[in-house]
Each structure stands twice: as structure tokens, then as C-alpha cells.
Amino acid sequence: MDKENKNIMIVDDDPVTATVLRKYLTNEGYEVTYCNSAIKGTGLLKSQFFPMVITDISMPDMGGLAFLKWINENTPKTDVILMTGFGTKEIKEAAKQRGASNFFEKPVDIKRLTQFVKSKFSNPKFTGSIREISLPEFIK
Fold first, then answer.
1. Is omega for the bond preceding 60 within 30 degrees of 0, making it cis?
2. In angstroms, what CA-CA distances link 121 with 51, 106, 130?
3. Alpha-carbon torsion 82, 86, 88, 94, what sign?
4. Reported pTM
5. Contact between residue 101 and residue 80 where contact means Cβ atoms under 8 Å apart
6. pLDDT tens digits, the chain, 140 residues: what are they?
7. Which of 2, 50, 59, 96 would bridge with 9, disulfide CB 3.0–4.6 Å?
8. Is 15 helix (H, G, I), strand (E, B) or coil?
């Protein structure tokens, strides 16, 4: 993750949750953009890179899991944090399997979320790929 680009997109159809997250993350030094739908989020992601997206799972136009899939296919360097008020074991497992960086249940523990965000920005992950080389050749 780019340590210099501290842009975070929050996507949630609940303006109260989004406002609380936005205020807290802005106070921590992040640039926060808010979208009230995943469709609007996809439009913005087509024109601007965000190292991180924090999104609700239950939204009317496009669910968070479908949005996560879209992000993975179109902006794979973006980390995605999912949140929901209706967390089940199955949803958590689906989020993990589809590549979510983390999963938070609402009401979100702001301090825990902020700690996680800080850790992601301070410890960038490997974002490249290795193709056309076998494991034994790579290890040599």
C-alpha cells in the first residue's frame, strides 16, 4: 500500500455511520471520500486510485461482496474492508475467501478499525505478480 497516498473511500448507504467514520479517519490524517452507493464508488474508482475502500455489505444498488469482486477485478491494489450490521459466520467466510482485508460488525469499533487502517498503511503488502517461472526456479 502506498504510504504517501492516504486516500480512503467509504461506501455506505447509512450516512450516520459514514459521517462518524469519515470524521474519525480525517482527524487521524487520512483523506476520506464518501459515496452513498457502490455504483457511485465504481465510477469514482474508474477515475481515481484509492489504496483503501471501507464498504458496507448490505446496500440497495450493489452489495458489498459484489463490490469487493468488482474492486478485485478492476483495481486489485485496493485493500477492501467490509462492514455489516448483519454479520454471520457465512458472510465472514465469504468476505475472507473473496479477498477482503478485514471484516467489522456494526456498530464498528472505531479504535480497532483505525488501528487496522494504520497497520495497512504502515506495512505495505507485495503487489506484484510472478508469472512463467516455476517454484524450483524461483527458489534457486
1. no
2. 9, 23, 23
3. negative
4. 0.84
5. yes
6. 555 789 999 999 999 999 999 999 999 999 999 999 999 999 999 999 999 999 999 999 999 999 999 999 999 999 999 999 887 888 888 888 999 999 999 999 999 999 999 999 987 655 555 556 665 665 66
7. 50
8. helix
Largest CA distance in the chain: 54
CA neighbor of 6 nearest in space, from 92, 79, 106: 79
> Long-range contacts of range 45-50, CB-CB < 8 Å, 24 or more positions apart?
45/9, 45/71, 45/74, 45/75, 45/78, 46/74, 48/7, 49/5, 49/7, 49/75, 49/77, 49/78, 50/7, 50/8, 50/9, 50/75, 50/78
Give which of 37, 20, 87, 111 is closest to 100, Cα–Cα. 87
